[in-house]
Amino acid sequence: MAQTSTQHEHYYVPAQSHWPILGSLGLGATMLGIVNLIHGHWIGHYLFFIGALAIASVMFGWFRDVIRESHQGLYSKQMDRSFRWGMAWFIFSEVMFFAAFFGALFYARNLALPWLAGEGAKAATHTYLWPEFKLAWPLLQNPDPKLFVGPHDAMPTWGLPALNTLLLLTSGATITWAHWGLYKKNRTQLIVGLFLTIALGLTFLSCQAYEYYEAYHVYKLTMASGIYGSTFFMLTGFHGAHVTIGSIMLIVILLRCIKGHFTPEHHFAFEAVAWYWHFVDVVWLFLFVFVYWF
């Protein structure tokens, strides 16, 4: 974080804040809205909108408060270490978050499907649960096709997914280039690098939105398409949400860079967002390989 020349050696403890509870309520409303949207309930649209608005308000207000505290010189070197550890553990928690979903995909593909096919000692499972089942991935035919209509085909690998991979890999390079511009006090390189990173992130989201349109209308792939549809939308959807959050954070950092908030010595806010963006890039690489390619 940017700091003034006035430093406080003590550990700064902020006053009680309403942001955490408001953020929790916003997340809860958003998830309830998504669940109701999936089930076709009319209230889902309103809950999702209210939750998303609450989350946006929390992000704006909390960022504003932290920036104000930083400019007041309330953060010491000890606070800087706390911020770094906090961000590191936050990213670790996000790694575990996606690890759970990749674990669900691994379980479905490498354990549950072979059991249904009767491999190993699971012949009875195949005989009694689904005798017509043939081992294949993606699973396009479900036990009750009338209730769970399978997709027409699997999502292609080398179309939009490959383009999105190129976009995110390039964005990882542009934000690193911007970081070097900050170190070298090259303001043009810093701002142009951040602008390009944001543009690439928003382009990624646009491509993913179009891919979802194709999934629904061309391939007939939905959340009700069985394990393939649910794992596909679960992993790509949560990743898209993280790209959205990362893009908002990058926009905030760009505005702060334009205002001259950072120096080569004090710019952890920039570093934290860069860490998060690189994490998003790495998750997409795993997602591209295991969801689209294999």
Automatic annotation (TrEMBL):
Q: Which Gene3D superfamilies match?
A: 1.10.287.70, Cytochrome c oxidase, subunit III, four-helix bundle (1.20.120.80)
Q: Which CDD domains match?
A: Cyt_c_Oxidase_III (cd01665)
Indicate where this protein resides in the cell.
Cell membrane; Membrane
Q: Where is the Heme-copper oxidase subunit III family profile domain?
A: 7-294
Q: What's its EC?
A: 7.1.1.9
Mark the transmembrane ranges.
21-39, 45-64, 85-108, 158-178, 190-212, 232-255, 275-293
* Gene Ontology terms describing biological process: aerobic electron transport chain
**CC terms in the record's Gene Ontology section:** plasma membrane; respiratory chain complex IV
Question: Which keywords are on file for this protein?
Answer: Cell membrane, Membrane, Oxidoreductase, Translocase, Transmembrane, Transmembrane helix
This protein is called Probable cytochrome c oxidase subunit 3
